């Protein structure tokens, strides 16, 4: 009877090993982290960007560029995915603030202020994602972070630089607008 040499067992690296390897500059490890998380980051960015595919894809790429740059600062206090989602929220909100400042500068340079037209009403036949996308920016952000991503009001307030009372009011507003849009 002949013996068959046992094959070496397949070694699957633990997630913390992949993160540590990426922190040491291992591009293949970072690519693995990208593949593992790109879907959830893209969905989060898409919701925060109001359903704008191009904007969400641009923000997602920006998140991963920032993640690569800041990977050395990841201490492992939370799961890597949690850290990455927080980075995504901060990236989208930071870009929104920059756009608001840019728009304000352009309006000041243009001269007399014009009143923006009211936001179009959402048709009752639209699906939930479209209804969420139609929400005002702050209400949509709070709704997505609280209801979909599971952030607490304290966490949202910190990220958005506001009070918990404000986030609760925005969530209430978002729910009322969604109820109206979907009824």
Tell me what you see in this structure:
This protein has about 180 residues and is an all-alpha fold. It folds into two domains: about 100 residues, RNA polymerase sigma factor, region 2, helix turn helix motif (Rna Polymerase Sigma Factor, Chain: A), CATH 1.10.1740; about 60 residues, Winged helix-like DNA-binding domain superfamily/Winged helix DNA-binding domain (Arc Repressor Mutant, subunit A, Orthogonal Bundle), CATH 1.10.10. Helix 1 crosses helix 2, helix 2 packs antiparallel against helix 3 and helix 2 crosses helix 4.
Give a quick rundown of the structure.
68% of the residues lie in helices and 0% in strands. By secondary structure, the protein is mainly alpha-helical.
Tally of DSSP β-strands: 0
Give a quick account of the main beta sheet: strands, pairing sense, barrel closure.
none
Order of helices and strands: HHHHHHHH
The name of the CATH superfamily of the largest domain reads RNA polymerase sigma factor, region 2, helix turn helix motif
Helicity range of the residues? Answer: 55-70%
- Which stretches are low in confidence, meaning pLDDT under 50 for 5 or more residues running? 115-126
Shape category: globular
What's the mean pLDDT score?
81
CATH topology of the largest domain: Rna Polymerase Sigma Factor, Chain: A
Radius of gyration: 21 Å
Number of helices: 8
Domain count: 2
Sum up the structure in keywords.
183 residues; Arc Repressor Mutant, subunit A; 2 domains
Helix and strand arrangement:
Layout: H1 15-23, H2 27-48, H3 53-70, H4 80-110, H5 128-133, H6 137-148, H7 153-160, H8 164-182
Helix pairs in contact: 1-2, 2-3, 2-4, 3-4, 6-8, 7-8
